[in-house]
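hey m, so remember when u said the tokens were messed up on ur end? i reran from scratch. heres the input so u can diff it against urs
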Amino acid sequence: VYLGGTTIRDDLALQTDRIYEYSAGMGIEIPKLKITADCKIGENRLEKSQPGTDNSSKIFANLNVYYKPPFFSSLKLTDGMIFLRAFMNDFRFSTQERNFRENSVTMGLNIQY
């Protein structure tokens, strides 16, 4: 569980911006199956102090799954793994026309020889 914030002071523009984030994450490891995974879900908010600038909000979710197949050791690939990563970011701004969402799913093979 994470709850935190950051204050950014710009002395030239005479403004102070604040970033707040709250999130929860969890990891799991299944040694017998050689699987590890983690996920994180939360919200990040930026509050601008200067009039006429956009406040923003980002809701996010991340998922990572890693698998070390047994046949990699027979190929002498000691640190090889197959991975699956997925994330979603949903951005919202004070001005409606600038809202957008990005999603990604990546699957790959990582080997060291």
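this time it looks ok to me. The mean pLDDT is 88. if urs says something different then somethings off w ur setup not the seq
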